[in-house]
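In these records, each integer encodes one residue's backbone shape. Here is one protein:

___
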Amino acid sequence: MLGWFKKKFTKTPTPPPEEILEDGPVVEEETPLAPESLPEAQASAETTTETLLKEITDPAPEPEETEATVIAEPVPEPEPEPTPITAQPEVENKIVAKALPEQEVNAEDQAPPQTAEKKTSSMFQRLSQRLAKTRDSFVHQLDTLFLGKKIIDDDLLDELEEILITADIGINTTLELLDDARRRVKRKELSDPQSLKKILKEKIQAHILDSNQPAELVMPQQGPFVIMVIGVNGVGKTTTIGKITRKFKLAGQSVLLVAADTFRAAAVSQLKIWGERNQVPVIAHKEGADPSSVVYDALDDAHKYDVVIVDTAGRLHTQTNLMEELKKIKRVMNKKMPGAPHEILLVLDATTGQNAISQAKLFNEAVTITGLALTKLDGTAKGGIIVNICRELKIPVRFIGIGEKVEDLRDFDAGEFVDALFQETTN
């Protein structure tokens, strides 16, 4: 392209036809415009016509040369084509193309914060919607109780006690909250019912945060992070394991699943399905095998992975022999890998209410629980069980289940939970 344009530009300076036209009669025809003497103009016109006739008749070969030049000159016709106007837009387009990416980069730099804010707000809204049953039975009753009340009296506190117990806050926790409220009223630190609602929110959050274990999972400095998952039948242990596995995978961790539930027929196949979904390996023995031997063999390959999650058989907390089996699995883990298991996660069904407290106490006596996962919070009006469990056992809540989707297993945040629980809604 560039070579072709150079050839065009080298031929443009050939102006012979214009010179011939200038030597022709056009130049001499300008003389008649002089108004000095018309006879002289006529004489000059006659001479010019004679000279033109001679030029046409005598030098016959000259027109051929001019024709040849004229024929050869259609090639330099580039006078309209090689004009630099066509080359300029290309330069302008390149400049515009360079400017556009800068604007796109700026737009992308500004987009992530907006999308992140929308994501966090939508996640909070989803949590708030899933806690609607608990909020309707607890917070809305508080609002109804405080509506129109100007003072805090014994009648108001008695009705408040009934509301707290109904929400499964627990008797001991309820009495502690009411004693604190009465003490503040006597000291004249509290008189407005709306202020009482604020105090309840702060105290509930404080109870949830009060635990003897770290609020977050503590990973070992070396070797894999071993999690032992326990609980009674039907609480959703295997499903919770599958959802936790996805969380670790999204965080870039390699995961190994161990099927130590050898009693339930569908337990191994169910865990393998979750392994396929998350694209992680599953170590399992035949049905009826010793769970401790499954765990022992699995820990031989544990060093290849970042996280090892062990699924155990569901059992009632009253079954002494099965509780002893959990103790054995824990001993085998610690013998094979000192320090393991690093996390003993108890899965509880939030819909069981106060029965979850007795379950947690007996499991804690057997193997010392380090964390809790509460499932089915979206299906109960008694979400206050979290407050009672945290106060009674001093064990942190790691995860809460608020739906059937994989992303509905949420990392528990006490502040977010309490805000969603006490969120004011407009009817």
Remarks:
- Residues 87-130 form the longest helix (44 residues).
- Residues 2-72 form one domain.
- Confidence is low (pLDDT under 50) at residues 1-39, 52-78, 80-113.
- The CA atoms of residues 351 and 380 lie 5 Å apart.
